[in-house]
Amino acid sequence: MTMHTKAITLRSGATVTVTPFPFSEAVAAATDFNAVVDALTADVRGQPSPLPDRACLTVLARLVRASLTRPEDERFVTAADLPELLHAIWNVNGLRDYAKKHLRQALRAQAARANLFTS
pTM surpassing 0.85? Predict the structure, then answer.
């Protein structure tokens, strides 16, 4: 079920509201977004994360900022808040279907590469 917004109470006690990415932001951050999806699904694919930890955190920070109704509220977010924030971002943007398709394509590409080396 896709929600339009989701209020999250952070560990600091501050409440932030997560909204769907504006289309312009989604387009501008498409590469970053795909990189984060790759990083978050790497274990499922049996692969190491394609992003170094620092790069992943930089991308996550941009995506969190783009998801907050008040981007300046990012200053209240801690690492401990990321799991709940990512879950909210996932839900409000309806990313389940996108991630399934993305993962399916990545697995097909991985299988095709493996077939090249075994044929």
Answer: no
